[in-house]
Automatic annotation (TrEMBL):
Membrane-spanning ranges: none
All residue ranges annotated as the Peptidase S1 domain in the record: 97-340
UniProt similarity note: Belongs to the peptidase S1 family. CLIP subfamily.
SUPFAM superfamilies: Trypsin-like serine proteases
UniProt-recorded name of the protein: Peptidase S1 domain-containing protein
Signal peptide from the UniProt entry: 1-23
Domain of life assignment: Eukaryota
Cellular component, GO annotation: extracellular region
InterPro entries, per the entry: Peptidase_S1_PA, Peptidase_S1_PA_chymotrypsin, Peptidase_S1A, Ser/Thr_Proteases_Immune/Dev, Trypsin_dom, TRYPSIN_HIS, TRYPSIN_SER
Subcellular location: Secreted, Extracellular space
Gene Ontology biological process terms in this record: proteolysis
Length: 340
């Protein structure tokens, strides 16, 4: 499958997400070929067809615990959904997540660094991204449009940029660098107002196997997000910990941020980026903790327990698009491109 096909897949879950609802008593619509029914009924139906529960995409009635279930056995040998590691994504080896600290080894194993070749010949990691399958990276489109910089490599498994080996009480696996085969921005990306600020990068070779330090994040099938919920999210990246510092952090950082309603957020943004749209989300941190320069393309994350999964997983609901100046200003929330 080429990058164009994968962008089509992304458009599919934009449509799926728009069909979910927060209604407690009424069933929301399911896409063609699927019907809203109880989880137990759907599971029994899939077992009778000798198919697994990964075919269940999302809930259609939260109050009655109903899910969208296929109406007939799947006849295709492989669907686009099969390309996403639904059962293996969003798992972390870290036992605890709190805000305002250095990340631990393997806490965010999907984090990627975008390495760009500068006009002076040097290689610099300017933006972040996330591994979403064994060959694709999700990032911000503006990270592909940096003046005098050409995207060249993707680094996975990094923790501390200043060390060759990442060691504390134990050492993590060596980093892995992958050549970029192709990078495509959203066809309606606007560099001036940063609308549709999302892009896909195809690695030249596939990640051979997932480890505690390199593993994909989940994409938000089954998560209903309107941008109005009062939710705490996590962000991570190697961006500046202080706006006035000359460069970003060497060690992967993370923090907790709070969702901000889109209407409220819109009124606090510069005229150049208004109005914000339903493809964007807003969040702001406490005590100045927020996305900053160098965090662009990194994930806005939520921990979710889906009805068909045994354990909670981490889902990427957004990616860092742009923030306030200076970073973490309480008056201006950061803006994220909505992935859900």
């Amino acid at each position: 499958m080429d990058v164009t096909d994968f962008l089509l897949l992304l458009s599919v879950f934009f449509k799926l997400a728009m069909q979910t609802t927060s209604a407690k008593e009424e069933d929301s619509g399911c896409v063609d070929g699927m019907s809203c029914m109880s989880l137990a009924e759907c599971s029994a139906q899939l077992r009778s067809w000798q198919q697994n529960e990964s075919d269940i995409l999302f809930r259609c009635n939260y109050g009655k615990q109903k899910v969208c279930c296929p109406l007939s056995p799947r006849t295709r040998e492989k669907s686009n959904m099969d390309l996403l590691p639904n059962e293996k994504c969003g798992l972390t080896s870290a036992s605890k997540i709190s805000s305002g600290h250095n990340a631990t080894f393997g806490q965010f194993p999907w984090m990627a660094l975008l390495g760009s070749r500068l006009s002076n010949g040097g290689l610099r990691f300017i933006c972040g991204g996330t591994l979403i399958s064994d060959q694709y990276i999700l990032t911000a489109a503006h990270c592909l449009h940096i003046v005098n910089a050409t995207l060249e490599i993707i680094r996975l498994g990094e923790h501390n940029l200043d060390t060759v080996e990442d060691c504390e009480d134990y050492c993590s696996d060596p980093v892995q660098d992958y050549q970029v085969e192709m990078a495509v921005s959203h066809k309606e990306f606007d560099i001036h107002n940063l609308k549709n600020d999302i892009a896909l990068i195809r690695l030249h070779t596939k990640v051979p196997q997932y480890t505690d330090y390199i593993r994909p994040i989940c994409l938000p099938f089954g998560i209903n997000i309107t941008g109005e919920e009062e939710t705490k999210y996590q962000i991570a990246g190697w961006g500046k910990t202080d706006f006035y510092e000359p460069k970003g952090s060497a060690v992967l950082q993370f923090a907790t941020v709070n969702s901000v309603p889109l209407e409220d957020c819109n009124s606090r943004q510069a005229a150049e980026v208004r109005p914000l749209g339903d493809t964007q989300l807003c969040a702001a941190g406490n005590s100045g903790e927020d996305a900053c320069k160098g965090d662009s393309g990194g994930p806005l994350m939520d921990v979710v327990q889906l009805p068909t999964r045994r354990t909670a997983q981490i889902f990427q609901v957004g990616l860092v698009s742009f923030g306030s100046i200076p970073c973490g200003a309480q008056t201006t929330p950061s803006v994220y491109t909505r992935v859900s």
